[in-house]
Each structure stands twice: as structure tokens, then as C-alpha cells.
Specification:
- The complex is a heterotrimer of chains A (287), B (268) and C (286).
- Chain A has helices at residues 6-39, 45-49, 63-94, 99-113, 116-130, 137-161, 165-173, 178-207, 210-213, 233-243, 247-280; strands spanning 52-54, 59-60.
- Chain A contains 11 helices and 2 strands.
- Chain A is globular and about 70 Å long.
- Chain A has a single domain, classed as MetI-like fold (Orthogonal Bundle), CATH 1.10.3720.10.
- Chain B has 10 helices and 11 strands.
- In chain B, helix 9 (241-251) crosses helix 10 (253-261).
- Chain C has a single domain (49-285), classed as MetI-like fold (Orthogonal Bundle).
- Chain C has helices at residues 4-43, 46-51, 65-96, 99-114, 117-136, 144-169, 172-180, 185-196, 198-214, 217-222, 240-247, 253-285; strands spanning 55-56, 61-62.
- A two-stranded antiparallel ribbon of chain C has the order 1-2.
- In chain C, strand 1 and strand 2 (61-62) form a beta hairpin.
- In chain C, helix 9 (198-214) packs antiparallel against helix 12.
- The N and C termini of chain C lie far apart (47 Å).
- Classes of the chains: A mainly alpha (287), B alpha/beta (268), C mainly alpha (286).
- Chains in contact: A-B, A-C, B-C.
- At the B-C interface, helix 3, helix 4 and strand 7 of B face strand 1 of C.
């Protein structure tokens, strides 16, 4: 084997890491760029505000899909946020260091790894069939809440754990109960992390398709209640791509999704930066 | 006083509407309302969507939702209460009638399963059933890319029954979940061969004639084309209410006219 | 008005309940999948299902070995592509790139996490599959290769960001020590930083593997879904996840139960992989 001088080796290694870094960024640019270039020209007001008409040509727009996605996000968050925050509060503030806590933490980790389609199977049999929610937004939202729960618990718990214990002790010393300490000291201080976690879960809900494909049905009609079926934007991309000739519309829907995801990324950055500067600015919270 | 009379009138009118809605079988201009959920066969789906649209135009307060999934989804979903009407592009299997004896099958249109190939890469226009069977079983010397449908597809069952006669379709065929996906794949893949509902055939794929019998409406209706079938609606018990109205609309003159327009075969 | 002590007591109970929800869901899913699997395990037999190579439900053949192999092959192939790329990326972001560049490159790569898998599938279908069909000369391009490339891109950001974190977590003293001894920057990375963050990188790869095995919709769109051991990497195959997604709605009886077995295998596979990651991660923390 040829032995290079350390400096040459370093040069080669630098070349390699620069290449890898550029390739990764390039891949992102290619994918995002391709979808946007192909998709954006198709998008117009008519596309955004008319509903899919079905059929092979994939006529119509995506309005009912946008509405279904919004319904789904609101419902999912209504279930997920209290549950996830509650669990995070327990793990971070109340849980004693014992077997049960280890068990809970371990199950959160394991739950996070279970494939979405397995949640889908579960949701299909329990929410769709056994509980008679039928193919519906409610069934989809419940399934999705189970799927996203570990992610929210993890990020919220991390954010709360990062709050210095001196702040809790100060509150307790002033005579606050545990719960008052949590709601008035810990949560406000952990707000940037918690908010970021929630927004990322919204992103996850927008992007998810597998578990919704089997729990919400494919009906592209306008949802009228939580019990009506629906087709989210991501699932609509799947339908358009697999069942119609309208690849341009699939790209356009994909472009809408990518714009939403980019927006969510930017908002997350902005929120955490804004709330952090506010915190550093020494504003007092809540009390 | 004035008010009272009006209310009485309104009441009578409403009772009348209700009565006629219950007693009369569609088409008298009375307004229906509610929702009908249909789901199942991807073959029936585009047709059902057109029917739904026409029905909704006539009855603005009615909402008809349509979902795909495949014929088995239609049968199972109807039995489990997921849909009011299940759509199936095949007859019920004996295992299904055993499991859910209450289900009722209603023929709503006829259809052929066209064997389609990629038009650009192959000049074949006619095959015998045996030739098709050999290709799908993976025993052909020519390099065909065989495209198959998923388990639970009615089109696949009809095709297997009529063409394969017990032989298995080669497992290295690609599997796609709908007529649309199949058609798109065949249209874009060199030397591809697949099978789709007659209603889906257009110029992007080439439909083969089988032993010189062309897959068209007349040949499907008189059963001279070997792979033909009925498209069915499945209901849990004899249909009633809105489902009944909808099915009767589909079987009526208007409904059957739509069948022809969409490229399927009218039966009435 | 309720006393604050009362509220405190109630809320303590309440959050305990919420805390156990994750655990309950996990148990519920496990029990439920197991229960769904039983009819097929009884009727067909565990050996015939796990080691049968033929999946043909209408002819009573329920072997999932081909799908198992499909999942494993696609995942391994994706890892072969993704690991050097992501670790290279992580070193680049943590050590090599000027701050200005890494501050742009990092969020750019992280954006890949959020993109819906159907969009990956769509781009794979429209761009990658025709290209592969052109290369291999036959078929439609729906293949193990297409699926592996799509997966590699999907797990790239996961592996990159966790690896970068663990590279950054190595105390700077280590690196400074190596540099003070006259090592070049690369020697310091190669001989000090990488060994020190090995566990973190392994954890990253394991998490990436978990994500790859669980991916569903993008796979359905680009792999061709043929339930067969792929003859080569340009042949179609089917993954365990795809098997469930394509057939669950239509399946009844033993067929449905066999799909639950598919889910069970997937569940156990993921459990093993993630427990591995968890154990390695914990050993690092100790």
C-alpha cells in the first residue's frame, strides 16, 4: 500500500469530506429544486381552491386535501399536545428514579422506532373497525397521535430538563407547590424547546402518509365532520402518482408540501431564536 | 294567522316530501339529503365518481363519497359497515358469501378485461389465451415485463379465472395496486404487458384482441370476448333509503348512459 | 376555588397517567399484533410463514421470507451508500467546513428529514426508475436499486446529524492534545475524534437502519412490489412494510392474519435494532 505524507493524506481527506458535504447539499437542492421547478408552474389559485375531481386524468385541484390536512392537524394536536406534555412533565418533574420510570422511558424510545405502517395496522383494526370510527379523520388523528407521541415527549422532556434546578428550588422555597412550579416556572422557561417540538410534530403530521393511507380512506371529498374520511396532501400525492396520469399535478402537490415543510423549518428556527432572546432578555415569566 | 297557514302548508309539504321520498323511486324532483359512502374496486371507481357527480347535481343535498382499495375491500368494507355500498368488479367468492350471507350483489354495468401492451415497443396485436397464459406464468422466451395486480383486485381474479386456469402468475411480475397504476406502467415501460378494465383503455396502451376477438362493448356484452364480467354493487341486505335511490339512478336511463360514455358496457 | 394543594395532588396523578400512556400504547400494539397473528401461526405454521419463499395468498401460500430478504437487502444496500456519505458529511460539518458554510449546509441537509416520503417516492418514480430502466435495459426500473438509493437519501440526514453531534461532544482537550503532539488536523480526527465518538456514530447508523426498515410508501412506489427474492439489484422486490400497505385493506381471514405476522416480524426486527441502539447509547452515557 502506498503511504502518503500526512499533509497529502489530510488534503485527500479534506477533498473527501468536502465532496460528501457538497453531494449531500446537492442532493437536497436537486430534489427540492426538481419538485419545485416541475410543480410550481402548475400551481395557481384554481388549483389551490378547487377539489380533486377523480378519474384517470386527475382533474381538479387540491382544496379538499388542504382542508382535510388542516382538520387532521388540529385534531391530532388536540389529542397529542396535552398527552405528550403531560407525559413529559411526569418524566421530567415527577418520575422517581425507579424501574417504572426506566420502563416508561424505554417504551417511549421503542415506540419512536415502530414503523408507521404498524401503527396504521393497529389504527385500522382498533379505531376504524373495532371502535366504528370508520375511515375517518378521527381515526387518522388518533393513530397519528400515537405515532407522534414519543417525539413530542422526548423533545418536551429534554427542554424541561434543560431548565436549571435552581429555578425550581427558588420557586419551591417561595412556597409554590410542585404543580405551580411546573406551570409557572418550568414550562415558561422550556417554552422554546416545547414549541419547537410541537411545530416539528405538525411537520410530521403533514409529511405522514403510510398510517393515514390505511386509516383515513382515500375519499377525496370535502370533509364535513371528524367522522368523514379524507385525503391529506401527502396521501393525495401517492394517489396521483400511482393511479392517475397526472404526474404534473402530483409534482405540484409535492411542491406545496415542500413549501410547507420549508416554512415549518423556518418558523421553528425563528420561534426558538425569538423565544430564546426573549428569555435571555430577562423577561420574567408567568408569575 | 298568516303565519299559521304558512306553517301548515310547510308541514304538509314536508310530509309530502318525506312520503314521496320514502314511497316513490326517484326522479320526481323531490329533494333527497344525506350521504352515501361507496368504496372498493378501482375499476368501478371512475364510473362511480361520474354517477356520484350526476346524482349530486340532481340532488344538491346529497353527498356521495367514493373510495378505492380493490374489490375485496368493497366486499369486506360493506360487510363491516365501512361503506353503504361496496363496489366489486367480480362476483362474490364462495368464501365471502359463507362469511357474510347477508350481502346482496347487484349488477350495475358490464366490462371486459383488456390485455394491454406497450404500443411503442411491440407490434403484436393478437394472442391466444394460451400465449397470454405462458407469458404471465413466466414461461415465454420473449422478454416481456409482466405487470400484475395486487391480491384482492377483482380485475386480477377475473383475469386469473379466465386466462390462467389455475396456473400461477409468475412472482417476478411487478405488482401494482390499481388499474390506473397498471395502465401508466404499461404505457411507460418497454415490452410491458398487463391487463386493465376496458373503461381504462386509451391510446397510451394497446389492447390485444384474443384469437381475433376484439375487446369492445359488443363482444363483452355477448360474452364472445373471453375475459368479460359484470361490475357490481354490494349492499348489506336489500338496499334501502338513499343507497337504493342511488343504485336505481345508476341503473336508470341516465346512469346507463354514463356507463357508455365512460367506456364501460351498459346492461339495461 | 380549589386549593392549590388539591390541584397539585390531582395534577400529580394526572401526569402519572399521561406518563404511562406511551407504555400502554406499546403494550397494546404488541398484544394486538400478536393476537392478529395467531390464526395464521396456528393454521399455516410459523416455519412455513417465516421460511416460505412463496407469497400467493389466493393459492394459500403465505411465505414471507422473500419480503424479509427484500427489506434486509434494500436496507443494507442503502447503508452501504449512506454511511460513508453521512459520516463524511458529519466530519465536514463538525470539523472541516468553515463556520459560514456549515451554518448553511447543516439546515440544508436537515431539510431532507422533513420532506414527505411520498415526495421521495414520486421523484424516484419519475427520475430514478426510468434512468435505471435505461441502464439495465429491461423492465420498468422499479427495482431494489431504485429503492436503496431513495432510502439512502432518506436516512442520510438522520445519520449525519447524530454523528455530527457525537463528534462535537468529544472534549476539545482530546483534539488539542493530539494537535499539540504534532498531529495534523486529519490525523487528530482520524485517530482521536472518530474513535472517541464511535459509539455515537454506531447509534446513528442503527437509528438510520430502523428508519430504513420502517419506510413504507416510498418503497411501494419504487420497488415494484414483486413478492420474490430479487434475482439481482435491478430486479423488483417487496418489503415487509409494502406487503402490509398494499394488501391490508383487502385481506380477510388467514390472509389478514398473515399480514399481522408480517407486522409482528417487523415489530420484533425494529425492537431488536432499537434495543441495540439503546444499549449502546446507554453504555456511552455511563
Amino acid at each position: 500500500m502506498i503511504k502518503f505524507s500526512p499533509r497529502l493524506t489530510q488534503k485527500l481527506a479534506w477533498g473527501f469530506t468536502w465532496a460528501m458535504g457538497s453531494v449531500a447539499v446537492l442532493i437536497m437542492l436537486l430534489i427540492v429544486g426538481y419538485v419545485l421547478v416541475q410543480g410550481l408552474p402548475v400551481i395557481n389559485l384554481d388549483f389551490l381552491f378547487s377539489s380533486p375531481e377523480g378519474g384517470l386524468a386527475g382533474e381538479g385541484g387540491i382544496f379538499s386535501c388542504i382542508v382535510a390536512t388542516l382538520w387532521l392537524i388540529v385534531t391530532t394536536m388536540a389529542i397529542l399536545v396535552p398527552l405528550g406534555l403531560g407525559a413529559a412533565i411526569y418524566l421530567s418533574e415527577y418520575a422517581p428514579d425507579n424501574k417504572l420510570t426506566h420502563f416508561i422511558r424505554y417504551s417511549v424510545e421503542l415506540l419512536a422506532g415502530i414503523p408507521s405502517i404498524v401503527f396504521g395496522m393497529f389504527g385500522f383494526a382498533v379505531f376504524v373497525l373495532a371502535l366504528h370510527f370508520n375511515y375517518s379523520i378521527l381515526a387518522g388523528a388518533l393513530t397519528l397521535a400515537c405515532l407522534l407521541l414519543p417525539f413530542l415527549v422526548r423533545s418536551a422532556e429534554e427542554a424541561m430538563k434543560a431548565v436549571p434546578s435552581s429555578q425550581r428550588e427558588a420557586a419551591m422555597a417561595l412556597g409554590a407547590t410542585r404543580w405551580q412550579t411546573v406551570t409557572r416556572v418550568v414550562i415558561p422557561a422550556a417554552l422554546p424547546g416545547i414549541t419547537t417540538g410541537i411545530i416539528l410534530c405538525v411537520g410530521g403530521a403533514v409529511a405522514e402518509s403510510a398510517c393515514l393511507y390505511v386509516t383515513m380512506g382515500g375519499s377525496a371529498g370535502m370533509p364535513t365532520s371528524l367522522l368523514s374520511g379524507g385525503r391529506t396532501l401527502a396521501v393525495h400525492v401517492f394517489y396521483l402518482a400511482m393511479e392517475t396520469n397526472a404526474l404534473d399535478k402530483a409534482m405540484a402537490t409535492g411542491a406545496v408540501l415542500i413549501v410547507i415543510i420549508i416554512a415549518i423549518n423556518l418558523i421553528t428556527r425563528w420561534v426558538s431564536r425569538y423565544l430564546q432572546t426573549r428569555m435571555k432578555g430577562g423577561t420574567s415569566y408567568g408569575v | 294567522m298568516y303565519f299559521k297557514i304558512n306553517r301548515k302548508k310547510a308541514l304538509t309539504l314536508m310530509t309530502g316530501c318525506l312520503l314521496s321520498g320514502v314511497l316513490m323511486l326517484g326522479g320526481c324532483g323531490q329533494s333527497l339529503s344525506g350521504t352515501v359512502g361507496i368504496g372498493g374496486s378501482s375499476t368501478v371507481q371512475p364510473l362511480a365518481e361520474k354517477w356520484a357527480k350526476a346524482f349530486e347535481t340532481k340532488n344538491p343535498d346529497v353527498k356521495v363519497t367514493i373510495q378505492g382499495g380493490g374489490s375485496s375491500v368493497g366486499v369486506k368494507g360493506c360487510a363491516q359497515g365501512l361503506f353503504d355500498i361496496g363496489a366489486a368488479s367480480r362476483e362474490m367468492k364462495s368464501s365471502e358469501t359463507d362469511q357474510w350471507p347477508k350481502l346482496v350483489t347487484i349488477h350495475v354495468a358490464a366490462d371486459g378485461v383488456a390485455v394491454v401492451i406497450n404500443p411503442a415497443s411491440n407490434s403484436v396485436t393478437d394472442m391466444t389465451l394460451e400465449e397470454i397464459r405462458t407469458i404471465f406464468a413466466g414461461g415465454s422466451s420473449a422478454t416481456w415485463t409482466v405487470i400484475n395486480r395486487e391480491e384482492g383486485s377483482g380485475t386480477r381474479e377475473v383475469f386469473e379465472k379466465a386466462v390462467m386456469s389455475g396456473t400461477e402468475i409468475a412472482s417476478n411480475a411487478e405488482f401494482l395496486p390499481s388499474n390506473g397504476a397498471m395502465k401508466q406502467k404499461v404505457a411507460n415501460t418497454v415490452n410491458a404487458i398487463g391487463y386493465i378494465s376496458l373503461g381504462y383503455v386509451d391510446s397510451s396502451v394497446k389492447a390485444l384482441s384474443i384469437s381475433d376477438v376484439v375487446c369492445n362493448e359488443a363482444n363483452c356484452l355477448n360474452k364472445s370476448y373471453p375475459i368479460s364480467r359484470y361490475l357490481n354493487f354490494i349492499t348489506n341486505g336489500t338496499p334501502d333509503g338513499l343507497s337504493k335511490q342511488f343504485i336505481e339512478f345508476c341503473l336508470g336511463v341516465e346512469g346507463q348512459k354514463i356507463v357508455g360514455e365512460e367506456g364501460y358496457v351498459a346492461i339495461q | 376555588m380549589m386549593s392549590r394543594y388539591f390541584v397539585d395532588r390531582i395534577s400529580r396523578r394526572l401526569v402519572l397517567c399521561f406518563g404511562t400512556v406511551a407504555f400502554l400504547i406499546l403494550i397494546f400494539i404488541a398484544v394486538f399484533i400478536l393476537k392478529g397473528s395467531l390464526p395464521a401461526l396456528e393454521e399455516v405454521g410459523i416455519v412455513d410463514i417465516l421460511f416460505g419463499t412463496k407469497w400467493y395468498p389466493s393459492h394459500e401460500a403465505f411465505g414471507i421470507l422473500a419480503m424479509f430478504a427484500g427489506s434486509v437487502i434494500v436496507t443494507l444496500l442503502a447503508l452501504v451508500m449512506a454511511v460513508p456519505l453521512s459520516v463524511g458529511c458529519a466530519i465536514f460539518l463538525a470539523e472541516v467546513a468553515p463556520r459560514r458554510i456549515s451554518n448553511i449546509a447543516r439546515p440544508a441537509i436537515e431539510l431532507l428529514v422533513g420532506i414527505p416520503s411520498v415526495v421521495y417516492g414520486l421523484v424516484g418514480m419519475v427520475v430514478l426508475c426510468p434512468f435505471i430502466a435505461h441502464l439495465s435495459g429491461t423492465g420498468s426500473g422499479s427495482s431494489v436499486m431504485a429503492a436503496a438509493i431513495v432510502l439512502a437519501i432518506m436516512i442520510l440526514p438522520t445519520i449525519t446529524s447524530i454523528s455530527e453531534d457525537s463528534l462535537r461532544a468529544v472534549p476539545t482537550l482530546y483534539k488539542e492534545g493530539a494537535l499539540a503532539l504534532g498531529a495534523t488536523h486529519w490525523q487528530a480526527i482520524h485517530h482521536v475524534l472518530l474513535p472517541a465518538s464511535r459509539q455515537g456514530i454506531v447509534t446513528a447508523v442503527i437509528l438510520g437502519t430502523g428508519r430504513a426498515i420502517g419506510e413504507t410508501m416510498a418503497m411501494v412506489m419504487v420497488i415494484g412490489n414483486s413478492p420474490i427474492l430479487p434475482a439481482n439489484i435491478f430486479a423488483p422486490a417487496r418489503t415487509l412494510t409494502g406487503n402490509i400497505a398494499v394488501e391490508i385493506a383487502a385481506a380477510t381471514g388467514i390472509h389478514e392474519s398473515a399480514l399481522f405476522v408480517t407486522g409482528l416480524v417487523l415489530f420484533i426486527l425494529i425492537m431488536i435494532i432499537n434495543s441495540l441502539g439503546f444499549i449502546i447509547c446507554r453504555r456511552k452515557n455511563d
